[in-house]
Amino acid sequence: MDQENVSATLTVAAPAEKVFAVLADPTTHAAIDGTGWIQEVGDRAPLTEVGQIFRMDMHHSHHPKVDYRVANKVHVFDRTRAIGWLTGQEKDDGQVEYGGWTWRYDLVSLGPSRTGVTLTYDWSAVPPSLREVFPFPPFGPEHLGNSLDHLADIVADR
Predict the structure, then answer these.
(1) Could you say which DSSP state residue 144 is in?
(2) pTM of structure
């Protein structure tokens, strides 16, 4: 596969501020996740800046540990326009090693009550050593669309 990212787009019936607030709330991420891998958030504080780290407990039957924790580092934070993070694992010494894949949501205001949301999963920086062990992307293409549908439902309920 030459392409090293996959995206999906959905129009959400809410203003960008409301959509962004849901995305910046780690406690919503398990409900947004289209795979069901996210079990619980370890850090409940809202995301507010680049460099912030938040952790999530995961369950994935094809992961070597099955149940594990990831540490995500916010690398894009542009209120109401974009939010994204790198995913890694914390080592015993407290250092986080990132795998080279990112999640990013781009928001485009389409009026006072509609927002175009594009979710992109990018694995272009994954080193060859990890690509030999794990397939990329590690989920089917429907995952991103499912995640956006879940996001729209959460936003509508708020």
Answers:
(1) H
(2) 0.92
